[in-house]
Amino acid sequence: MKDIIILVADGCQEKLIEGLLPRIPNSSNTKPFTYDIYKHPEHDSGCCNDSQEILRPFINQYRYAIVILDYEGCGHESNKSCQEVEQIIEGKLRSNGWEGRNVAIVVNPEIENWVWINSQHVEVAIGWNSDQSLYDWSRTSGFLAQGDTKPIRPKETFEKALKKSNTSKSSAIFKKISTKVSYKKCEDEAFKKLLYKLIEWFREENQAEEK
């Protein structure tokens, strides 16, 4: 039995997770874990509406299930909060065989929020070639408010930065960033929820084995 099955909404999320997860055991002092990543064919709304159906066949093949999606595009932006969407997904998973071993991660507004970290590794990944740093450019261009660490519209600002760098958007960029940038600098609440859940699942097992 493998440790985790991860259902994501698109290729950018997939590549980001591919780059991130191998770093967790060393950086966050967890037991090494195995995982597989699947993309939902109906993207964010699919992850929101029927992740339990997609994941049901894997109940006895994986110990844990993670669902990751963007808040924008999930279909409930106008009537539910991110936390409410997460609770709905987790409730469906609990009722379909994943009780006590699932978590839903809804990124507000989109996965680009996770790559907005003030690091030279981000600039290298996107081919940034301006005299200004990426963050200084974001502030002087009005995309990033003074004192904030992430743009209000992270996806649109990221795409503008790529355009300024003459770099085509690619899911591979997300993996370049997630393999290099210190994730401990990420202040996004959804990201911290994912990290804390991984630490909880695999640190607790370590402690139980030591007793």
Secondary-structure element series: EHHEHEHEHHHHH
Work out the count of structural domains. 2
* Shape, principal axes of CA atoms: globular
The average pLDDT score comes to 95
Number of strands: 4
Judged by helices, strands and strand pairing, the structural class is alpha/beta
Q: What ranges have pLDDT less than 50 throughout 5 or more consecutive residues?
A: 205-211
User: Fraction of residues in helices?
Assistant: 40-55%
Give a verbal description of the structure:
- The chain has helices spanning 11-20, 24-28, 43-55, 82-98, 120-126, 134-140, 154-164, 171-180, 189-210, and strands spanning 2-8, 35-39, 62-70, 102-107.
- The protein is α/β, with parallel strands linked by helices and 211 residues long.
- Helix 3 runs parallel beside helix 4 and helix 5 (120-126) packs antiparallel against helix 8 (171-180).
- The two termini are 23 Å apart.
- The chain has a 4-stranded parallel sheet with strand order 2-1-3-4, with helices on both faces.
What can be said about this structure in brief?
This protein is α/β, with parallel strands linked by helices. The protein is built from nine helices and four strands; from the N terminus they run βααβαβαβααααα. β3, α4 (82-98) and β4 form a beta-alpha-beta unit.
SSE topology sketch:
Blueprint: E1 2-8, H1 11-20, H2 24-28, E2 35-39, H3 43-55, E3 62-70, H4 82-98, E4 102-107, H5 120-126, H6 134-140, H7 154-164, H8 171-180, H9 189-210
Parallel strand pairs: 1-2, 1-3, 3-4
Helix pairs in contact: 1-8, 3-4, 5-8
